[in-house]
Design brief:
Helix content: 10-25%
Protein name: Curli production assembly/transport component CsgG
Signal peptide: 1-25
CATH superfamily of the largest domain: ABC-type transport auxiliary lipoprotein component
GO cellular component, one term: outer membrane-bounded periplasmic space
Organism: Paenimyroides ummariense
Largest sheet: 8 strands, antiparallel, barrel
CATH architecture of the largest domain: 3-Layer(aba) Sandwich
Strand order of the largest sheet: 10-11-12-13-14-15-16-17
Keywords: Cell membrane, Lipoprotein, Membrane, Palmitate, Signal
Order of helices and strands: HEEHEHEEEEHHEEEEEEEEEE
Distance between the termini: 70 Å
Length: 456
């Protein structure tokens, strides 16, 4: 009877779980069922900030191509669909029009245009009845040609996930980051000189979340349920945003180097945008694909810190208890990856019923930062030190070695939070006033603290 109630409860929980996620099984309804106006990207809004041009620039685009040769990633055999949209020239022309700085003319399918003009001429001649016909107006010629394309599509530059399962019930989450790169250059039709080249990139994010249950509710009855959702950023939107950004930067680069000019009343506005652009260049130089922003000066040469600790003595007595302590430190960063750490602390160590005392500790460690240019970095340390039992004045200073590992997160420009664990290995066996066993006394230490970087 009891087993039957448990089985019924599991079924009800599963039905409720499926009901709560039922929205994911229903196809989206509403305006998306019909044709809609295309979305506006974030970079397209930047065009509204541009000053007005002195005269719109007539440009021609013969072919803005996908030069990656990349196919869509697939977990199930070969996929012959290209990863990058093939209508890149059309996207670029739309971006040029939206910028209000360029007047694009038809060059991608120039053969079709010339054929149509020839048909018009022939038709006029055949049906003119001997009367003179007006010539077609001449085609506009481009003062500048725009060349380039999507030159790179890098997949899986950053991947990760997390999950857990307990007694057949669990869930997981995964994410993946790809990257697309666009180059755009302006070429003078008079001289063939390349006037400007700009380069932009855009990350493409994919995320998935799923949950499942796999459990026997009876000897002969197996219950299995699964639900999930995946969110993939559209590649077309990412490409459009990268191309829009490239056009925006091309305009600013041309203004900056006097390749083209703004209206006189907009020169102040142009100067402000160029200052913002120069600052963006400085920040961009700190960026590495897939790793966020790297800053060589993120951590200053000198820093001070303090931490609270929990100490667990592993001596000659059987019982183990965690005691509180505190430590202050001074660090000298002598290279990007290494620093020298000097610390002094007050530690409680002991074993219930048998021994308890207070110690001062002094340590010198060499620390290795794995990701010194990131906000978040793991680190490892090793060094030598000493402890002194302050409750026993006649007891000499005792030496030790220590190794440790930890994590540091910069929560402000010059303040970091640290969590760490250290293993202190004694050279003597009488920390607890007892000599016994084959191993010298040692203790484990866990701590959390703040590190303040000076001179920033």
């Amino acid at each position: 009877m009891k087993l039957s109630k448990i089985n019924s409860l599991l079924v009800l929980i599963s039905l409720g779980f499926l009901q709560s996620c039922g929205v994911f099984f229903t196809p989206p309804t509403g305006i998306e069922e019909h044709s809609v106006i295309g979305e506006i990207t974030a970079s397209e809004k930047d065009f509204k900030k541009l000053p007005a041009p002195q005269d719109p620039i007539v440009v021609g685009v013969y072919k803005f191509r996908d030069q990656t040769g990349q196919y869509k990633a697939s977990n199930m055999g070969a996929n012959w669909s290209t990863a990058v949209p093939q209508g890149l020239t059309t996207i670029l022309i739309k971006s040029l029009e939206d910028s209000k700085w360029f007047s694009p003319i038809e060059r991608e399918n120039i053969g079709n245009l010339l054929n149509e003009r020839q048909i018009i001429r022939t038709t006029r001649q055949e049906y003119s009845n001997g009367q003179g016909t007006d010539n077609l107006p001449p085609l506009l010629f481009a003062g500048i040609l725009l060349e380039g394309g999507v030159i790179s599509y890098d997949t899986n530059i950053l991947t990760g996930g997390a999950g857990a399962r307990y007694f057949g019930v669990g869930g997981s989450s995964e994410y993946r980051q790809d990257r697309i790169t666009v180059y755009l250059r302006a070429v003078s039709t008079n001289s063939g000189k390349i006037l400007k080249t700009v380069y932009t990139s855009k990350t493409i994010l994919s995320q998935s979340i799923n949950a499942s249950m796999f459990r026997y509710v009876d000897v002969e009855r197996l219950m299995e349920a699964e639900v999930g959702i995946t969110n993939n950023e559209p590649v077309q939107m990412a490409v459009t945003e990268a191309i829009n950004k490239a056009v925006y930067l091309l305009v600013l680069e041309g203004i900056k180097d006097n390749v083209w000019n703004t209206k006189n009343e907009d020169k102040t506005k142009a100067d402000l945008l160029i200052n913002e652009y120069n600052q963006e260049i400085v920040e961009s130089n700190k960026r590495v694909a897939g790793k966020g922003v790297w800053d060589n000066n993120r951590r200053s040469t000198f820093s001070l810190g303090g931490s609270l600790t929990l100490n667990s003595l592993r001596g000659d007595y059987p019982d183990i208890v965690k005691e509180l302590g505190a430590t202050a430190n001074f660090k000298y960063l002598f290279s990007d990856y290494f620093n020298l750490s000097l610390s002094y602390g007050y530690q409680n160590l002991g074993s219930p019923k048998y021994f308890k005392s207070q110690f001062t500790s002094a340590e010198a460690d060499l620390e290795y930062l794995m990701l010194p240019f990131n906000n978040f970095t793991p680190y490892f340390s090793a060094g030598i030190g000493s402890i002194k039992d302050i409750k026993t004045p006649d007891k000499k200073i005792q030496f030790k070695t220590q190794i440790g590992a930890g994590l540091e997160l910069l929560v402000a420009k010059n303040v970091g939070i640290r969590g760490f664990a250290k293993y202190h290995i004694g050279i003597d066996d009488d920390w607890d006033n007892m000599v016994s066993g084959k191993r010298d006394d040692h203790f484990l230490q866990y701590g959390i603290g703040l590190q303040v970087y000076l001179g920033k």
